[in-house]
Amino acid sequence: MSGKQSDRTGSLLGLSPVVVQRIKKGWTSQERAIISTLSILAFLTIWEVVVIYFKRIDPLFASAPSIIFAAGQELVASGELFRHAGVTLQNLIIGFVLAAIVGNFVGIAMGRMKYLDFAATPFVDALNAVPRIAFLPLIIIWFGIGIWSKVVLVFLGAVFPMLINAYEGVRGTDPKLIEAARAYGATERDIFFKVVFPAAIPFIVAGLRQGVGRALISVIVAEFFASNAGLGYLIQFSGATFRTGHLFVAILVVAIFGILATYGIRVSEKRIAPWLHERHAD
Fold this sequence. Notes:
The chain is an all-alpha fold.
């Protein structure tokens, strides 16, 4: 049903346009949830049938939902899943928070201060171009295989997307808005907090969301090579011992971490910049 048809139907039923729009948005959110749930269930059903019932794929290579569920129960019962997930979460949170603080602060400072921009840009471009995994041997030499080697690699993986996005957000602020604020007597502090920073929020949020993915990649890779605990270690060990179910359980937990982190960023954005969501809703 098109928008005009639904509005016409609502008027015939005596409903106000506001009520009609709320019903349309409600149905849209319900349809999204229903279709997403059905698609996931269909995928899991096909996977289970192909592997277990039709035996088209060896479970050693692809596992199956029932096998993964049993492996998850085993890891939970033994406490191994919570131990490895706790180690990864600790490494991830410390590195990501440090990257968010440093990356956004330096990116905003570079966007606002011309000479700092000139001085720091060559280093930012060079370090951003180098794969972070290339630093891992040096990081292990400096920090060993304890928590800080993982934290540093997570920091390096997440900091540059945040820095670059914050920089572009500040630099991309409409100069006419800044000129208008100055014309009304705004101080540099007012211009930053009331013009520049609000305009940069979408870029900062985009940098945080990109940083989550980079941080997860970094912590898993670091735990592959420099850890005896964590989800990365569990993935590497499960693959080496052909425990495909355990491997998929660890991957699923990593995906859940990413989903929860992204959701948390979206909730924070709604609180910090509610006008952005109102604009998208319109």
